[in-house]
Structures are given as structure tokens and as C-alpha cells.
Amino acid sequence: MTKVKKAFFCKNCGYESAKWLGCCPSCGEWNTFVEEIVSKPATSALGINNYNSKAQLINDIDVSHESRLNLNSVEINRILGGGLVCGSMVLVGGEPGIGKSTLSLQIALKCPDIKTLYVSGEESAQQIKIRAARLGSNDAQCYILSETLLETIVIQAKELKPDILVIDSIQTLYTERIDSSAGSISQIRDCAMQLLKFAKETNTPVFVIGHITKDGTIAGPKVLEHIVDVVLQFEGDNSHAYRILRATKNRFGSTAEIGIFEMQNNGLREIENPSEILISQHNDLSFSGVAIAATMDGVRPLFIETQSLVSTAAYGVPQRSTTGIDVRRLNMLLAVLEKRAGFRLATKDVFFNITGGLRISDTAADMAIVSSILSSNFDVSIPTNSCFCAEVGLTGELRPVPHINQRIGEAARLNFKKIFISRYSKLEDKPPANIEVISVAKIEELMKILFGKN
Q1: Does domain 277-451 have CATH number 1.20.1090.10?
Q2: Cβ pair 245, 71 in contact under 8 A
Q3: Which of these, 7, 85, 158, 246, could form a disulfide with 258 (CB 3.0-4.6 Å)?
């Protein structure tokens, strides 16, 4: 007879306790413990054979048969490290409505030579068919299963033998092994472990979609992120069309890669050159308060447009408003301008914006931010064929940033004529002939070059 066990689990991190606790010892959150019933059956309910494990010498392990599935997507293949590894488990998280289900269904529809089983616990088969028609469904071998019971899903997968199994989403599944509701800590953990076991034993890659909490972390126990092979985060703003897919964990590739997509009526479109889209196409016009920053997201150069508006404070207390960067970073740069460049802010409102709805953390954008603020203050435009790449220190010096040659090369490819960098940057290669590299040491020197101010 099955032995029933009751335990308390933290909804935030999955910490297990024999009694209720006010504060979680693992994550420090308050009032997050809930009681759940945990059942441990005597035999496996899924009927999957156990491993015939035997220790092997590492030099004797054969990896010549290891293969990757081509998902017919340049962006996704690069993020995964060259394709989807057979037998791997990929977890995708993101805000509601960001496009997780669209992304997973689009992968299945764009691979006509790959048999895919798409399991949805949130939509009916008819609803998925309507969405597939909007995405441009063709002769894809995509099978739809609307089911939430894990045992039924595994049986269907063993009979169909798909090349890829997609689960949308892990929070809607439940197993009869555990007497608790779907989405609970114990259900998510056990379903994830059984799906991982199925993936490793059948060598079938499993694509899992996961919900996130209000603070942006993936819902469920932290073990969910530990047991999977790849964790992908789908980021963006519902009010903007652009989406960023980045890997926060990847056992088979780099976590420095990102993929950029644009949400359209017929699905997600890959953006091969995001810099040309994020930069406004107004080469024939010049506006004050605009500067181009040569940033990096992982190992990918990303040129973005920074916009500033400096005006007289109408209500006495100066306002500081930012979109796309941390407001504390802006306040620090404004303090450096006031101390080192004589920029008086007591009666000035400062508004700052990163175009395209992106959010950046690369400090190489500091020089562009400072230049756009000064440009708006003096009402003098910066030439549209110039870009900036340096970090601003508290003493007003311009500090070097990594991957400077890669940034310069991308600037030359985008037809920029000038790039401002730190004088202390060390160039490994000779810059391209079609771009002028201007080295600057301090903010005062930058002001003199751009605006003729001492």
C-alpha cells in the first residue's frame, strides 16, 4: 500500500520542511510555505526501464554518434550551440504573452523533416490549429496532443517516437504518483524528473515551457533549472515588437549568445542585423540629444540609439527619468558631468531613452549617454556617422572596454565614419580603412572635440 507523506514546500525556491516555517531558510522569503501531500509508489508508474549502468573509462566513451538537430533557425541554432542535442532537455521561460508558445510551435512547423509531438495543457487542438494556420503551417510532421496527465503523454510519446517532444507548459502537467494539484512544487519537480528520464533513455530532446513568477524567475522549485540541460529566457516588452532570447544555462554551448526576433502577425521573424533596425534611419536629418552607442550583448555587437532631453525644470524639483538603463547609472553620470565638466543640474530636467524598447547593462554605452546629454543641453547635434564606445569613470576619465576591435569592425560595416574610444584601449588589429578611430582620455576633451567647449 502506498505510504502517504505530508510536507511543507517553499513556493519560491522549493525548499522542503517537515513543519511550517514563517521564513524560508534557503531564499529568505516570508510566508511562502504551503502544505502538500507526497506519495511514493512502490513501483514505477510510467513503466520506463531502468538504466543498465556500468562505469566506463572516460577515454573509452564513444561520442562519434553524438548529433544535433537542425531547427532551420539561425538564431536558435546559435543560442543552443549549433543545434538541438539529442536527449537534451531545454527549458524556456518568459513573461505571459511574450511569445513562448509561438516560438515552440514555430520551431515544429519550420522543420518538415523532423517529427514533433506538441503537447499542450493550456490550449485545445483546435486552438493550436488556428495559431498554426496564422504562422503559415505547411507539410510539417507536427502532431498535436492536448493532455495534462504525464503518464498518458509518455505512453503517446513512446508509441509515436517523435524526434522532438514539446511540453506547453510544465506547470499544467500532473502525475498520478503524487496526490497534489497541478502546478504545485512536488508535481513540477516529479514531472520534470520523469521527463528528463524519458529524454535520456529514449535519446529524445524535450522542449519545456515554464511560467515565471512576478519577480521574473521561473516558477517552481529551483531544481527545475538545475536538472535541465539548457535554460532559455525570452525577454521583451509587450508594447514593443522586439524579443530577445538568451541562454542563462547551456551545457552544450556558450551562454554569451543571444537571438533577436520581431513579433509580427505571422509569427516571430529573425533579426539578422539588429543594429540597422535599432538605429533610426534619418541620415539626412540631425537632431540634438541623439548619440549612437557601440555595445555588446554577450559576444554579439549591438549598436543602439540613445536619446536625451535636457530642459528647464518647470516644477522646481528637477526630474530624472530613464528608459532602458538603471536610473542610478544615469544619476552617477550626471554627477560626474556636474563635478568634472561644470554641467549645472540644479534647474534641469533630464529624460533619457534607449530606442527599440531594449534594456542594456553594458558600461560601454556611458560615453554615448554623456554625449547625448551634452548635445541636448547645448542644443548642438552630433553627426549621424559617429558612434561612441567607452566607460566613464568617477574621475571623468574614459576607460577602455573589452572586444574593442570587434566593435570597431561592426561600426565600419555599418558605414560609420568615426568612432570615439578610450585613449587607453589596446587595439589588437589595425582598424578598417573606412573608419576614423578617435581616442579620448577625459570628458573635458570629448566636450571640446564635439561642441568646442572647454
Answers
A1: no
A2: no
A3: 246
